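ESCALATION

Customer reports they have been waiting on this structure for their group meeting. Please prioritize. Original submission:
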Amino acid sequence: MTEKNRKTKRTPQQIGRASRQKGARFELQIAHYLQEHGYPDAHRTAQHCGKTGDAGDVEGVGGLHIECKHVEKLNLYATYHQAVRDSSANGNGNIPVVIHRKNREETLVTMSLDNFIKIYSAYQNGRQKGDVEL
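Update from on-call: job pushed to the front of the queue and completed.
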């Protein structure tokens, strides 16, 4: 086997760094997506105030506590419980949501059924009044 064909094994530090960078890129991608869709104040928390423990990964969307995960194997309930804990810790009553995706898959949003009904009912009420369009 030639020197060129040999695969170098990555160290745990390199793997961890790559994983953190992937997560940071996803958080930034979500912040930009939200900015493009009417939330100009959306920003990655770590960019503005560092990780404080009770802040979401992306802030600037009123009423939501957003956790972002871009991983292949996600423990969804653990991540959701983290969002609930962090949202409760800052005491602002924001709805905890998890925005997540796998490689080459669609980005999804997870929240409790009760919170989904609150949001959907508000949407329906606005739609009936003519305030909301799809």
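Sent to customer with the following note: Residues 54 and 86 are 4 Å apart (CA to CA).
Escalation resolved.
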